[in-house]
Amino acid sequence: MRTDTGDYARSYRSFLSSTSTLDMEVVYDDDLNRHIRFGQVGAVGWFALVTWPRRLVITGDMGDYMFAGSEDMFEYFRGSQRWINPGYWATLLRATGDPVREVSDQKVIHHAVRDFWRRRGNSIGENAELFRAIRDEVLAQAGHGGEREALEEFCHRLTDGTLFTFPDSAQWDLDDWSIHYLRACHAIVWGIGRYREAATH
Question: 143-166, pLDDT tens digit by residue?
Fold first, then answer.
């Protein structure tokens, strides 16, 4: 598994916790045409992998994504083993029912805290009060939606009468791979591994 960002590790832990009890069912398997289901439809964490030549679809609780690539998509993704490559795989997407990218709470926290440290004043007490306001009005919002709005609307008056805002936040790159997309990538690699393992026994 890749661990380039905290979101990678978190998505993998989330994936493993929701799939630990999933049974595999081969619904259909004819050369490159396959329908492999993991868990019962509607159960937490269930998903299905469906392939036909040059196409792979993952659907279910992990989200809905269709990829296009080599003739045998199981062989294509199988080469990844436990690694995922969401950036490159995104170039293979042909249809999505769920977001591929979204605001990352880790990036929101990183940018807001870095900007605070860069622009803070000399008063320890005032800095502490300012950081509490940032924590309560911005950082607490991370991961719950509305992060961009919280950054753009943040305004704290300092003792000298000036206002501390985040004027450059509209230019910050706050997006990263969505948790649904990362879990789907993990599910593809994991599911193909389960399928191949069963085929060798």
Answer: 778 899 999 999 999 999 999 999
